[in-house]
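Field reference: sequence -> structure
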Amino acid sequence: MGSLVNLERALKPSTRMGGHFVQGHVDGTGEIVSTEPEGDSLWVKVKTTPELLKYIVPKGFIAVDGTSLTVVKVFDEEECFNFMLVAYTQQNVVIPLKKVGQKVNLEVDILGKYVVRLLNSGVVNAIK
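Structure field:
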């Protein structure tokens, strides 16, 4: 409670859409387990629950404290994923203010949730 998050304005329906589909929901939380500078970039590794990790894929989207990011790698055995923040992003979001051990809010990709739901419902098998 009381921690900073990023808020982005919603797109108008008439706006050209591209990139990530962020809804502004919180699906769960994660914990920052490491931050490592690399040049002017910052690698961040986050641990989360298996329930959320099943929706997280490399090169897929994740929103961390309201910031839409691209996942670089998923570490299933560690229940973690990582992403990189370039210098510009570090200067304009709250994530670099967080310390190892702090919680972050996570929103997973809605498209991934739909795919998992369809696969589990048997709809895909019925179409075949």
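Note: The CA atoms of residues 93 and 123 lie 40 Å apart.
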